[in-house]
Specification:
This protein has about 500 residues and is α+β, with helices and mostly antiparallel strands. Helix content is about 15%, strand content about 35%.
């Protein structure tokens, strides 16, 4: 779970994990299965909305998720004992404890935590937050009727803090999904989840704002709500008065780590695209405009703080462009530093959350029309969006097979012989990217892209992360059986 989430880390502070809300529509809604009509329409001004229909309809679709991370043996760096060298005739000569530290093996405690999830299909697909399942060895899903299922992770996306998991079930109570782009500020919503160990909890509020950004995730366009949410609500449902999903609870904003007025949910418009990508490709196909920047108002305020005369950009709404990536869609459109993006495909872009929300629904290869101000002159151009690697190809998480080799953790005898404490020994090279890079049997991999390789799982994660990054390359550092150190560059994609 992220540092902003309390349910795993008690040190949580200003932005804490979480949780969701439910939006309410002021129109009459009918249940397509029962033809039951929700009595939420044509209420006199000032009359309360009846939320019982929405709660009754959505509750069975929200599940409790138990997270377990088993105890493990890990190697950690600790401060070297100053008296150790007194009893060591070699005084650390052979490299132990360099820099005043030494490595020791410790057993980590078993970790358990809880969160929420939402059933989106009758055959068992469930959406939750990435921080609810990240690092889990076991996931147990409990439905409102107390039936328990073991869950497996289909895919995760740290950038949006979303995850897709699956249980083996049939005719499960899947929630109906609404278009979050259509929700309005002031609508009633329900937050449904399992906060503070209180399962099947429903709280009510309104949508306080849309397209919020907090700087907690890589891609954000949150729905803000004042429905009460707390630790454990993470991954739960934000539903409207028809009981339809409009968001996945993700965070709360708090000075104390508990509810203090504002929660944030990931809109379903963003969720749907992430889920589709995880099912089809195993990773999110993320489109990029290729700019860095900030809201125009933020830019003007920054200029004032620096004692400068504020620039007249021709508008106070839009995205000030601070930098444009080479070969990007923005460069193709002719956008440069100091320009202001105001629309995408005719949709107004007033703040960065608007931009993120629109682009998060696109894939590399999609065409969009960018409207922007250059020296206060309005221009438009249709461009092709690209992925992080600068092209329109499908990005897939590479698996270990692409390496064409087999590995095992180094034996204790090898550790003693080479004076190392961890590493992965290459026990077979049959082809693939390892052979292309020149890596041979016997080489011991200690670090990949500056991450320690203590298990095969560590290497698998490194391969997946690199394959979906801007630079799909592994920098492999290690040691030969002779004790000589070396490194290799492994290209995960074909040139």
């Amino acid at each position: 779970m992220k540092k902003i989430a309390n349910y795993i880390s008690p040190a949580l502070c200003v932005v804490a994990i979480v949780f969701s809300v439910a939006a309410f529509n002021k129109t009459c809604a009918a249940n397509p299965q029962t033809n039951e009509v929700a009595q939420v329409a044509s209420l006199p001004a000032g009359q309360p909305v009846d939320l019982t229909y929405a709660a009754d309809k959505a509750l069975p679709s929200v599940v409790h998720i138990k997270y377990v991370q088993n105890s493990k043996i890990q190697t950690v760096k600790v401060q070297r004992d100053p008296f150790e060298d007194f009893f060591d005739p070699f005084g650390g000569f052979f490299g132990r404890g360099q820099g005043g530290t030494q490595e020791r093996k410790v057993q980590t405690p078993k970790k358990e935590a809880t969160g929420s999830g939402v059933i989106i299909s009758a055959d068992g697909y469930i959406v939750t937050n990435n921080h609810v399942v990240d690092g889990a060895d076991e996931l147990t899903v409990t439905l409102t009727d107390n039936k328990e299922y073991s869950a497996r992770i289909i895919g995760t996306d740290k950038t949006t803090d979303l995850a897709l998991i699956k249980i083996d079930g049939r005719n499960l109570p899947a929630i109906q999904i609404a278009n979050s782009d259509q929700v309005k500020v002031g609508e009633w919503v329900l937050a449904i989840g399992n906060p503070l160990g209180l399962n099947n909890t429903v709280t009510a509020g309104i949508i306080s704002a849309k397209a919020r950004t907090l700087g907690a995730n890589g891609v954000e366009s949150f729905i803000q709500t004042d429905a009460a949410i707390n630790a454990g609500n993470s991954g739960g449902a934000l539903v409207n008065t028809r009981g339809e999903l409009v968001g996945i609870n993700a965070m709360l904003y708090s000075q104390t780590g508990s509810y203090s007025g504002y929660g944030f949910a990931i809109p379903t418009a963003m969720m749907n695209k992430v889920v589709d990508d995880l099912k089809q490709y195993g990773t999110v196909q993320r489109a990029m405009i290729g700019i860095s920047g900030r809201d125009v108002k933020t830019q003007v305020d920054l200029e004032k703080e620096e004692g400068k005369e504020p620039t007249d950009y021709g508008t106070m709404e839009g995205i000030y462009v601070n930098e444009v990536s080479e070969g990007s869609a923005a460069e193709e459109a002719g956008i440069g530093k100091g320009d202001v993006i105001t629309e995408i495909d005719g949709q107004k872009v007033q703040k960065f959350g608007d931009l993120s929300g629109i682009i998060a629904q696109k894939r590399p290869g999609d065409k969009v029309t960018l409207t922007y101000l250059h020296n206060k002159k309005k221009l438009s151009k249709t461009v092709t969006l690209r992925n992080e690697q600068g092209n329109t190809k499908v990005v897939k998480n590479a698996d270990m097979d692409v390496l064409g080799a087999d590995f095992r953790p180094v034996t204790e005898a090898t550790q003693n012989q080479l004076d190392i404490t961890y590493g992965l020994e290459v026990i077979k090279v049959s082809g693939g990217k390892m052979k292309d890079a020149g890596i041979q049997k016997g080489f011991i991999i200690q670090r990949v892209n500056d991450e320690a390789m203590r298990s095969v799982d560590d290497l698998e994660k490194a391969v997946k992360d690199a394959s979906a990054s801007k630079d799909p390359v592994l920098i492999v550092k290690g040691i030969f059986p002779t004790g000589k150190r070396g490194y290799y560059v492994v290209q995960l994609t074909s040139e």
